[in-house]
Design goal:
heterotrimer; A mainly alpha (265); B alpha/beta (316); C mainly alpha (265); A: 265 residues; mainly alpha; 69% helix; 0% strand; globular; B: 316 residues; alpha/beta; Rossmann fold; Alpha-Beta Plaits; 2 domains; six-stranded mixed sheet; four-stranded antiparallel sheet; 10 helices; 13 strands; 32% strand
Chain lengths: 265, 316, 265
């Protein structure tokens, strides 16, 4: 584990240095990422020129959901986002080259072309979260849940990125499929889960536990109550969801790699 | 004890083909079958065959990237597909057409990363780097970004990269492709030195038979998924009906030369190409030509190994 | 006819990526679903916002998803090929061809847009029709107008992407500029939220910019918000931008040709 992490850092560092060889591009892309990931919040802000509460949430509380959603996907995207490129790596034969190196394949794929500019989403989401957090009535318990939420949110999205990218071991050009779950999931979490039909809420709680990345812990922190009638302890269950996600992901990954090594295509 | 041990190795692929809008057919293709060979430590082996013969499938199985369908496979006493990471520390792989170096960064950075990836201790890394930089003449290039290197320089960089962790086996896939004659020569020279001094086992797939002639004591020819020849390079000539060529430059253009024991294959102006069995003596044929024609010049070409192999494919 | 052949070839080229198309349709549909519920809540809280009914709003969502790939919102299409050919220098071959470069790439992009409209445009709309009973075109005139408006939307988007691609003649790496262009398209097309919801002067400005032709205008035409001369004015707005921008493309190309000839490619 420690070795794998060290290898990840070493590879990622070279890619960062590589991208800094073209500083103008690097900064243009970073500023661009900052703007592009911020558009959605501008949308929410414009929305509030027509209303004062949305699904029972005021603008700052919406900012809280938005910020935590962006941080969850942002952390995962920065660290493992490149797993979406498996299909391309297979087509270019680079996966084979990686497999002949003594570093776990997942580490190599995720660290490959590591893009520091993706930190933009974290900065932007973090900024909104700080602004939104100003209005929260903080207690030690709420602060603790915030920390756990950020960690679990990152892990849950890490799982989404990796598991759904495994599909590319079967169909190499279906990289967009995973976007529905990763970016789609993050977009959904920008809104209160209560505006969606109950089936959606149940599905995102018990089948694909995305709701634990920000919705349930946010209810706890903001002192709100779920209108779907689900038990309150779910508000503190994010670590369980994250653990389940890790198990599912590692199974999916092993399954995918086994498929690749047994077909080679 | 052999370093690479392959017995009755087979690999089948399932191919699904679309026949129409809805119907699909499923067929099995045997990429490799009944493949048996063993390679001892320190050997230099050429692994050759036409495209699609099963070369890269074999290499993928030897490196653990692909699981065999059946048969036994041991490399350095490891089972490649199960112990891929462990094996990776003991082998080096070079793909001629793909670089694994960092495009925008100096060569030195790629080498430093490999030290971390293979966890080579600093002293050994420094020693190896110094030696290979010296042997491959990379000294002035260490601080040059890879994108500015020529193809030959980059290939030398890639080979160094594959060797820094002291692999026992080096797989080379088309190492000289696209290189000029001088670069090819230097590279072959280096590989010979590497084998002689370090005892590194070399397995080489290539379309350039000069690589094989310059480097390999032993050749394995694969066709349609199985070995059709395995032995010393010299023996290849005795297989099939290899022929030598007599190139005759006449003073004037003439109709095709007809002399007993030889066949005229090609006529181009005053130059004609005659072939005769490699085992036969050239003397009577040369005498017969000289007796009946005005000859300006003569030369004899040894059997082309490509021809020999082509005949093996055709016959095998 | 030559341009028709170019368009057909381009259509075929994109139609070979079946798995990618299916994955894309799936993703567009997931986003359609998310935004539909988000909009329903918005229009519940602020009925008639922007002059739309809830059904109008949901229809807006699904048509918006249809337009993303049709107008190549995130760049892509033949203009990406052009960008690459400028970077590698192959463009000099294009410049010496007896066919005008601009029309050559335009024809190819129309072929691509047709393919994307028929697959990634229509398929999600059908899902929207089944799940949310989205509206059909308001009147026969609105249907015809919509077709014309989509064509003009592709034309305006092509011209902008073409201009962005040609920046590669002058800057070494235009990926930053391309990202900025994608952000402007996303933010100012009405994709995130109908532009009619933007209040005050800002609303007037964004509705007058060329990007409004991408999503806002075609959907308003479809929903029958423009009648008679007003419909012609809406199409005229798009046509005006199309002519101005294509003219600009021609001028830029002339400058670029002069530059390539001087530098010898």
């Amino acid at each position: 584990m420690g070795d794998a992490l060290a290898a990840y850092v070493a590879i990622a560092r070279l890619w960062v240095r590589s991208s800094l060889e073209y500083p103008a591009s690097f900064w243009a892309m970073t500023v661009g990422s900052l703007l592009s990931t911020g558009i959605d919040f501008v949308g929410i802000w414009v929305m509030f020129s027509h209303l004062t509460t949305y699904g029972g949430f005021d603008l700052r509380q919406m900012g809280f959901l938005y910020g935590t959603s962006q941080l969850a996907i942002g952390l995962a995207d920065l660290v493992v986002g490149n797993v979406e490129r498996i299909g391309m790596q297979i087509r270019l034969g680079r996966l084979d080259a990686m497999m002949s190196k003594p570093v776990p394949l997942l580490v190599q794929i995720c660290a490959d072309q590591f893009a520091l500019r993706r930190i933009a989403r974290i900065v932007q989401g973090g900024g909104v979260l700080i602004w939104a957090g100003w209005a929260v009535d903080w207690t030690p318990a709420r602060a603790g849940v915030l920390v756990s939420m950020l960690a679990c949110g990152g892990v849950i999205f890490f799982g989404l990125f990796v598991s759904f990218s495994c599909v590319q071991f079967w169909t190499a050009d279906a990289s967009e499929f995973s976007n529905a779950f990763t970016y789609g999931g993050a977009s959904l979490l920008e809104y209160p889960l209560s505006v969606f039909p109950k089936q959606v809420a149940l599905g995102l709680t018990f089948i694909l536990p995305i709701a634990f990345a920000n919705w349930y812990p946010s209810l706890f922190i903001l002192g709100k109550h779920d209108t779907t009638g689900l038990p309150h302890w779910l508000e503190l269950a994010s670590p369980v969801a994250a653990l389940v996600m890790i198990l599912v992901t590692s199974t999916a990954w092993r399954f995918g790699v086994r498929h690749y090594t047994s077909t080679g295509s | 004890m052999s370093l690479i041990d392959v017995r009755d190795l087979a690999r089948t692929f399932v191919v699904r083909r679309r026949n129409g809008a809805l119907t699909r057919s499923r067929s099995e293709v045997r990429a490799v079958h009944d493949l048996t060979f063993s390679i001892g430590a320190g050997e230099m082996v050429g692994y050759i065959g036409p495209n699609g013969a099963g070369k890269s499938t074999t290499i993928k199985m030897l490196t653990g990237i692909l699981v065999p369908s059946s048969g036994r496979l041991r490399v350095a006493e490891l089972e490649p597909s199960r112990q891929r990471t462990e094996l990776a520390r003991r082998i080096g792989v070079v793909f001629g057409q793909r670089t694994t170096l960092w495009w925008d960064l100096p060569l030195r950075d790629s080498f430093e990363l490999l030290q971390k990836i293979y966890r080579v201790d600093a002293a050994r890394h420094r020693r190896n780097l110094e030696e290979y930089v010296e042997l491959l003449d990379l000294g002035d290039l260490l601080d040059t970004p890879v994108r500015q290197l020529s193809l030959g320089q980059r290939m030398r960089g890639d080979i160094t990269a594959a060797l820094l962790h002291d692999p026992e086996i080096l797989y080379l896939d088309e190492p000289t492709i696209g290189l000029d004659v001088i670069s090819k020569g230097r590279l072959r020279e280096f590989l010979r030195t590497l084998n002689a001094e370090r005892g590194t086992t070399l397995m080489l797939t290539t379309h350039d038979l000069q690589d094989i002639e310059a480097l390999c004591d032993r050749v394995i020819v694969i066709d349609h998924g199985t070995a059709v020849f395995d032995g010393p390079l010299g023996d290849l000539h005795h297989r099939g009906e290899s022929r030598r060529t007599l190139v005759v430059d006449l003073v004037d253009e003439a109709p095709p030369i007809a002399v007993p024991g030889a066949e005229t294959r090609k006529v181009e102006g005053p130059r004609q190409w005659l072939t005769f069995p490699a085992g036969a003596s050239a003397a009577p044929i040369v005498a017969a030509v000289a007796a009946s024609y005005d000859v300006a010049d003569l030369s004899i070409q040894e059997p082309d190994i490509e021809d020999v192999i082509r005949q093996i494919y055709a016959g095998g | 006819m030559l341009y028709a052949a170019v368009a057909v070839r381009s259509f075929r080229r994109y139609s070979t990526y079946t798995a990618a198309t299916l994955a894309g349709i799936f993703t567009n549909s997931v986003f359609g679903l998310i935004y539909s519920y988000a909009y329903i809540e918005l229009w519940r809280a602020a009925p008639h916002a922007g002059g739309y009914t809830t059904t109008d709003a949901v229809t807006y969502v699904w048509l918006g998803q249809s337009m993303i790939m049709t107008v190549a919102m995130w760049s892509g299409g033949t203009t990406d090929d052009l960008n690459e050919r400028i970077r590698t220098g192959d463009v000099s071959i294009d410049l010496y061809r007896p066919v005008p470069v601009l029309w050559w790439y335009y024809a190819g992009d129309l072929g691509r847009a047709t393919y994307h409209f028929l697959t990634r445009g229509l398929a999600p709309s059908l899902i929207g029709l089944v799940l949310f009973h989205i509206r059909g075109p308001a009147t026969p005139a609105a249907a015809v107008g919509f077709a014309a408006s989509v064509f003009l939307a592709v034309t305006v988007s092509f011209a902008i992407r073409f201009l962005v691609a040609t920046t590669a003649f002058w800057v070494l790496d235009s990926s930053g500029i391309r990202l900025m262009s994608a952000i402007l398209s996303m933010a100012l097309s009405g994709m995130v939220l109908p532009l009619n919801l933007v209040p005050g002067v800002a609303g007037t400005i964004v509705n007058a910019l060329p990007w409004a032709s991408y999503v806002q205008v075609p959907i308003d035409v479809y929903l029958g918000r423009h009648h008679g001369t007003d419909l012609l004015a809406a199409l005229g707005f798009q046509a005006l931008w199309a002519v101005v921008l294509l003219g600009l493309c021609g001028w830029v190309l002339e400058r670029a040709t002069a530059k390539v000839v001087v530098q010898g490619g």
